[in-house]
Write a structure and sequence with these properties.
The chain is mainly α and 436 residues long. The protein has 20 helices and 2 strands. The protein has a two-stranded antiparallel ribbon with strand order 1-2.
């Protein structure tokens, strides 16, 4: 009899407890939906009542509590609430993009002037240490600028390492946007794109363009610090300790290449060590440059082919073709750039490279002012194409420069030609363009 009583009591408690839990869960869902509805309709103050209940009783229901809550806190400028949400989110959802949570909180503090530079940097460092690619575009730049200012004279290697990490993250984000933009542009051209996808295409293009500006800003900043005079002593000093470290060697040889330090014997030493340590396509591509510099044209071509054949990623194949193009001239350089575009049709930098080839040929491909300025039209067209397919490639400054140099209406009139008519540019360019 006692056993039956215990069983019945246990069953009653089980049902009661689970009933309470079900009721609580139901109430959490009701409060959550009311809260979300208030935020979505701009009733931010009203939303805070249900938000308080959710934070107290249903803190693990959904990470969206904290996302929508942050919006309500920002709109009402509730600093205490924002801090509470930030801290509670990291406790309850530690694995749900914590770097973005840190970055967003830093942005809120900056926007509302609620923290010192040191406090903001501390939060941005937490975000950076977790995942630089989840930081906002502006915060990536802020973080690097702070590191550069603090270490450029005392510890330039730290600046270089931070730059490499940040640029790799920026590159990943740009490549991701590039792929997304490419797919949606195909749909757009076929007329099968939905309104939702059109909004995505617009957002991806805007974000990609912003990242491209950050990339340019970071390059401008590092160019003042990473001079050959600084790099060579540092890499000479650290070579023995890192001669089998593929990551260190890749970064060292890449920076030496980008800064034009290839004439120093150290570059060849680094390239050989990089190839030996990794036997990668990237390393063989640098080694091809060394062979070409030493006059071994056949060896260089063979090494480039080895690198190209070894690579399976079409985006990387495109980069290798562009590097090869950059070491060629005239029509061959253009041909190689177009080959790069076969592997990545949205490679804006390939179009910009072709534009630069045209710009360099202005004087040799034009016999008078009009003809020379029409070469700028061809260059402008390529730069505009670059921006269209790859908003983050940094085409803006090229477009601005080329546009300044196209023929004026007066010059077109003096040549007895009409705006909008076709015009074929001579020389090796051989392209037909429209007269502006």
């Amino acid at each position: 009899m006692k056993k039956i009583t215990y069983l019945l009591t246990g069953l009653f408690l089980f049902v009661a407890v689970n009933g309470v839990k079900a009721q609580a869960s139901q109430e959490c869902n009701i409060k959550y939906n009311l809260f979300k509805g208030d935020v979505n309709t701009g009733k931010y103050e009203e939303a805070k009542t249900n938000l308080d209940f959710l934070l107290t009783n249903c803190s693990k229901l959904s990470v969206n509590i904290y996302k929508f809550g942050a919006k309500a806190a920002e709109k009402t400028k509730d600093v205490a609430l924002m801090k509470k949400l930030y801290e509670a989110r990291l406790v309850n959802f530690p694995n749900k993009r914590p770097a973005k949570a840190h970055s967003d909180y830093a942005t809120f503090l900056i926007k509302n002037k609620l923290a010192t530079d040191a406090e903001v940097f501390s939060i941005l460092k937490k975000a950076y240490d977790l995942s630089p690619k989840d930081m906002s575009v502006k915060n990536i730049f802020r973080y690097f600028k702070a590191v550069a200012n603090e270490n450029k004279d005392t510890n330039p290697q730290k600046v270089f390492d931070t730059y490499d990490d940040v640029m790799e993250s920026v590159g990943e984000k740009l490549e991701d946007y590039n792929k997304k933009v490419s797919k949606l542009q195909v749909k757009d051209s076929l007329g099968t794109i939905s309104d939702k996808e059109k909004r995505r295409l617009k957002n991806y293009s805007i974000n990609s363009g912003a990242l491209g500006q950050v990339e340019g800003g970071l390059d401008a900043m590092i160019s003042k610090i990473a001079t050959c005079e600084r790099l060579i002593p540092i890499y000479t000093r650290d070579f023995e300790a890192n001669k089998t470290d593929g990551v260190w060697l890749k970064r060292a040889v890449s920076r030496m290449y980008n800064k034009g330090c290839q004439t120093d014997p150290l570059f060849e030493k680094l390239a050989n060590a990089y190839a030996k340590a990794t036997q990668s396509a990237d390393a063989y591509n640098f080694l091809a440059g060394v062979l070409a510099k030493n006059g071994d044209k056949s060896g260089a071509n063979s090494m480039r082919k080895k690198a190209f054949d070894l690579e399976t990623d079409p985006f990387k194949k495109a980069r290798y073709k562009l590097i090869e193009a950059q070491n060629a001239r005239g029509s061959r350089a253009r041909s190689l750039a177009y080959q790069a575009l076969k592997y990545n049709p949205n490679m804006g930098k390939a179009y910009l490279f072709i534009a630069s080839l045209y710009q360099k040929s202005v004087n040799s491909c034009g016999s008078d002012e009009f003809e020379k300025r029409m070469v700028y039209v061809a260059a402008l067209n390529k730069a505009l194409k670059a921006k269209q397919v790859d908003p983050g490639c940094g085409a803006g400054r090229y477009i601005k420069s080329y546009r300044k140099n196209v023929p004026s209406k007066k010059l077109v009139f003096q040549k007895g030609l009409a705006s909008g008519s076709s015009y074929k540019i001579g020389c090796w360019i051989g392209e037909t363009v429209r007269i502006p």
